[in-house]
Amino acid sequence: MKNFFDHRRLQRLLVLYVDDELPQNETAQMRQHLKSCAACRQKLSDIRACRELLKVGRTPQFVPTEQLWQRIFRKTSPPERFRLGEIFSAARWRYLRWSAAVAGIILFGVTVWDKINESDHGIFDGARRPVAAAAIDYGIFLDDMRQETSEANFYKRYPAQVVKLVEARQAIAFPLAAIEALPDSFRLECVRVLECNGKKCIQFTCIKADKVINIFQHALGQPWTLGQYAVARAPICNVECLLVNAKNFTAVSWQGSESEYLAVGDLTPQEFEQVVQTLQ
Hints:
By secondary structure, this protein is of the alpha+beta class. The chain has ten helices and ten strands.
């Protein structure tokens, strides 16, 4: 577990490493880590590739020559009885040419932006989970967390109703997690009932020392996915867990006897151990 969070800390420093802004001792530690971590080496390669792509974006823009416009004009000219010049004046034709050039620049910028997002989306190597139409896509929730925005997109997909604990127990067909058994430092903020394809699951939102942790519980066998987020496997309290690491949160998923759980938050390894040990 310690190695996992050391990996997470060093991964956050990769950009500083690329820019030669790390202290000498951390630079040496990073080099040693990169020798044994394929995921960080791939991340480092992605960052450098994005830098090169941005450099390409600074090259002078393409300006079509007059000869090129003449060739386009001849290829697209209408019949003699319906000349293009009769519709567009010379001034308007020049305007259209510049509009086409601007559209090309915008298209290039969108392509560069997509490449940057793709390079930063996955953290760990490994196979992606397939997205099923009837599955709960927790990747939408993680996207909102990663972008530090509200979870509006997730709740648009899955209607949520804030309820009391007793109402939550009545709404689902599986035993509700013993959320009250968590240490007193975990203050239960609210409980929501979510619905996906006619099946219901539970979301607990807790506050611990001004940090928010969301714990999802759904029935064993309920299809679910983390979208395009890659996962790593690691044991916590002798329970095999799936881990997702992002810049401002960690997600841990594990399986209980009658339901599955997903805990999301910026917590320490000890705090995650408390959650898994209490709710497993």
